[in-house]
Specification:
The chain has about 260 residues and is α+β, with helices and mostly antiparallel strands. It has 7 helices and 5 strands. The protein has a domain at about 80-200: PAS domain (Beta-Lactamase, 2-Layer Sandwich), CATH 3.30.450.
């Protein structure tokens, strides 16, 4: 087959001297022609392939970033709604119920049951006086009479009027997060209504996010301490090996590569 398409001048010896000397080196001309034709045919194909690869790669990266942005935005709205809904419930109670009712253990237990049935995630309820002592407590732990005046959140609630904590252990030695609201009384004093939220219900808000492949979603605090279970970290309360970005009120994407 090759012999049939092989040019005749390739079959003969290239004579460069004597009366039968060839004026042109047809073998070289033929090889150059093959190379030029191949270059003209293949070069556009190579260029188009390179451009297509680059465009496809950027398209995949853009799609991945948009998916990550969407997941992050959904997570922010879900968690914000979960916390603000329960903060609003406490704020309503301190405005709607007299202090005497809230400070009554039986009535406070009734309110806790209603909160659990209506919202879910509430572990306990406690009333704390202006000196930081928990005067009334209903829940599964022995926290009656505990004093919180030296804790940082007491200072924060004096300035902001409410407090939403990180996930922590506290007196109960169980991971939980706390929401507390302050309410002024007519005599100038104040009290705090405080509740602990179940981290199981809280973690479900993150676990229900739609992730693909080896994706992972979890919460960290401002110090980079993990707050919710992750797919690749063994325990919560460990510090992530990445730089924690500054706080932003909007959903942002930050890409960082781990050389390990």
């Amino acid at each position: 087959m090759i012999e049939k398409i092989k040019p005749d001048f390739l079959k003969s010896r290239n004579v460069t001297t004597g009366p039968f000397r060839q004026m042109f080196n047809y073998t070289r001309i033929w090889l150059w022609a093959i190379l030029l034709v191949s270059a003209v045919a293949l070069l556009p194909l190579i260029v188009i392939t390179a451009i297509d690869y680059n465009v496809t790669q950027k398209s995949i990266e853009s799609e991945h970033l948009l998916r990550t942005l969407r997941v992050g935005s959904n997570a922010r709205r879900t968690i914000s709604f979960f916390l603000s809904e329960r903060l609003s419930a406490l704020s309503f109670l301190v405005r709607d119920k007299p202090f005497e009712e809230l400070n009554n253990p039986e009535h406070l237990a009734f309110l806790l049951k209603n909160l659990r049935d209506s919202f879910g995630g509430f572990v306990d309820l406690g009333v704390i006086d202006m000196y930081g002592t928990q005067t009334t407590y209903v829940g599964p732990y022995n926290l009656q009479g505990k004093n919180y005046k030296d804790q940082a959140w007491c200072q924060e609630i004096s300035e902001k009027g409410f407090h939403i904590s990180d996930v922590f252990l506290g007196f109960r030695k169980v991971p939980h997060l706390v929401i507390a609201v302050r309410h002024e009384l007519p005599d100038g004093s104040f009290f705090i209504l405080r509740t602990a939220l179940d981290t199981v219900r809280f973690n479900e808000q993150i676990a229900n996010l739609e992730l693909s492949g080896r994706g992972d979603a979890f919460l960290i605090n401002h110090q980079g301490i993990i707050q919710t279970p992750t797919r690749f970290q063994e325990r919560i309360f460990e510090k992530i090996p990445y730089t924690v970005p500054e706080y932003s009120g909007n959903t942002e994407i930050r890409e960082e590569r781990n050389e390990d």
